[in-house]
Here is the input.
Amino acid sequence: MRKTFVVSALALATAAGMAGRATAYEAIAVTDGGTLSGAVTYEGTPPAPTKIEVTKDPEVCGKEKMAPNLVIGQGNGIANVVVTVQATKGKKAEPPATNPVFDQKTCEFHPHVLAFPAGSTVDVLNSDGILHNIHTTSTVNPSQNQAQPKFKPKIQVKVDKAEWPIAVKCDVHPWMSGYWVSADHPYYAVTDANGSFKIADLPAGDYQVELWQEKLGKKTVPASIKAKEDTKVSWTMAGK
Ligand SMILES: [Cu+2]
Here is the structure.
């Protein structure tokens, strides 16, 4: 009985980790690719930012913070939306020459959402000089739970498989939260402070594009990419 439960829970977790991708990704040479660019904005009046009370290490962390789970910028642009083109073929996703960096600074994760190709090694930094711990809740990759005291300014975490979103917490400072996105293709972006993004070198064709934001959830929108052209989009996400 117990064994059956474990197996089905694992199957569910694996399916969730693949984020709805039906087929494996095929790497091909892309010539005359097109670009998808634009912004994701909040539909309607955005809620006022929420304050977080800091309960520990105020000399480093500060006394209060704004919640990072919904950050609205200029023109109601939504920061930290993960934009994923559901491409089945295209450029190969290769780990970058320089490791992606995930820094703990003033008891916040920077960046709040870090996206990288599967197989990358993440440099987890501790710029604060106080105890943090890096605690990921992966289901496809091994979960990490490592203390990072001040004498350990860098921990390296290799993320082999595609999986997103991977929630990251610090058990020392319960308000700290962030997400990792480990992608098996290169056609993704995280929106900037004003909700803007750009994804280049897409093979021409019709696509579904998935928008994910931790508080607003998921939305799928269509996009048509033409060879050597920039497709400009203006998408919205609504509160729940
Ligand atoms: Cu911490």
